[in-house]
């Protein structure tokens, strides 16, 4: 079983749409959670950390459900520039030096 | 600042050859890591370092060696290349915070 699982997509949405991605993780001891963004053939870059109380950064909202071991990312008012692959990342239990990456969810925002 | 740099960008090796992928960062980060990214697999941790002189294994360390003689440099050595090591390799660094900064990657093909 993979440590982190994501729906690979692709999610094809029109500009202005709201889209949500989910991610599940297997280790209940994981302590830190993140969403990274990866453009085609580029390196991943941090989009946002995910906090227990949920957090928002502009059009992006991240939620954590520890009981069900899933993380979500909501993107409102999608822009063409949001087209990318979104990677869910969790730490290996309480080892903050080891990170598990999901295989990513691809988003295509169409005009 | 250049951030995290990796060389070479592309490399083709024959089975059994050895080589070193270079990684350097100029942000004085303590933590550095090497990942490989394969289609449908997400990024997987190969080795990581928590400071000069200290390294440890990640999820997929077999066939790779690392050393960390300085804070800036973290080379990855392929001992005897195999076709299964065909992948995109990313080096990353971070401070005590959790945001990882990735280099642009090395695309390696082993024939």
Overview of the structural elements:
The complex is a heterodimer of chains A (111) and B (111). Chain A is mostly beta strands. In chain A, 0% of the residues lie in helices and 58% in strands. Chain A has strands at residues 4-6, 11-14, 19-25, 33-38, 44-50, 55-57, 60-65, 70-75, 84-92, 95-101, 105-110. In chain A, a hairpin with a 2-residue loop joins strand 6 and strand 7 (60-65). Chain B is mostly beta strands and 111 residues long. Chain B has no helices and eleven strands. In chain B, the strands form two sheets. In chain B, strands 2, 4, 5, 6, 9, 10 and 11 form a seven-stranded mixed β-sheet that branches. A four-stranded antiparallel β-sheet of chain B has the order 1-3-8-7, with no helix packed on it. In chain B, strand 5 (42-51) and strand 6 form a beta hairpin. Chain A binds chain B through residues 2, 4, 8, 32, 34, 42-46, 49, 87, 91, 96-104, and chain B through 31, 33, 35, 40-45, 48, 50, 56, 58-59, 90, 98-100, 102-105.
Quickly give the structural class of chain A: mainly beta
Main β-sheet of chain B, in a few words?
7 strands, mixed
Oligomer: heterodimer
Number of helices of chain A: 0
For the termini of chain A, the CA-CA separation is 37 Å
Query: How many β strands of chain A by DSSP?
Result: 11
Q: What are the key terms here?
A:
heterodimer, A: 111 residues, mainly beta, six-stranded mixed sheet, 11 strands, B: 111 residues, globular
Tell me the layout of helices and strands.
The complex is a heterodimer of chains A (111) and B (111).
Chain A: E1 4-6, E2 11-14, E3 19-25, E4 33-38, E5 44-50, E6 55-57, E7 60-65, E8 70-75, E9 84-92, E10 95-101, E11 105-110
Parallel strand pairs in A: 2-11
Antiparallel strand pairs in A: 1-3, 3-8, 4-5, 4-9, 6-7, 7-8, 9-10, 9-11
Chain B: E1 4-7, E2 10-13, E3 19-25, E4 31-38, E5 42-51, E6 54-57, E7 64-66, E8 76-78, E9 87-94, E10 101-102, E11 106-110
Parallel strand pairs in B: 2-11
Antiparallel strand pairs in B: 1-3, 3-8, 4-5, 4-9, 5-6, 7-8, 9-10, 9-11
């Amino acid at each position: 079983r993979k440590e982190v699982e994501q729906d690979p997509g692709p999610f094809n949405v029109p500009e202005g749409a709201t889209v949500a991605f989910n991610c599940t993780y297997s280790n209940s001891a994981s302590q830190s959670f993140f969403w990274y963004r990866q453009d085609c053939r580029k390196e991943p870059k941090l989009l946002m950390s995910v906090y227990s109380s949920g957090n928002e950064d502009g059009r992006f909202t991240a939620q954590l459900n520890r009981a069900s071991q899933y993380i979500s990312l909501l993107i409102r008012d999608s822009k063409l520039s949001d087209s990318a692959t979104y990677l869910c990342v969790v730490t290996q239990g309480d080892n903050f030096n080891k990170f598990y990456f999901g295989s990513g969810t691809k988003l295509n925002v169409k005009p | 600042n250049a951030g995290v740099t990796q060389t070479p960008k592309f490399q083709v090796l024959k089975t059994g050859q050895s080589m070193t992928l270079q990684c350097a960062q100029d942000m004085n980060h303590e933590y550095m890591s090497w990942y490989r990214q394969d289609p449908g697999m997400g990024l997987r941790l190969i080795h990581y370092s928590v400071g000069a002189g200290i390294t440890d294994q990640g999820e997929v360390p077999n066939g790779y060696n690392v050393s960390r003689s300085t804070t800036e440099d973290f080379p990855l050595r392929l001992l005897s290349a195999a076709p299964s090591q065909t992948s995109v390799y990313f080096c990353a660094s971070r401070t005590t915070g959790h945001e990882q900064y990735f280099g642009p990657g090395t695309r390696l093909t082993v024939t």
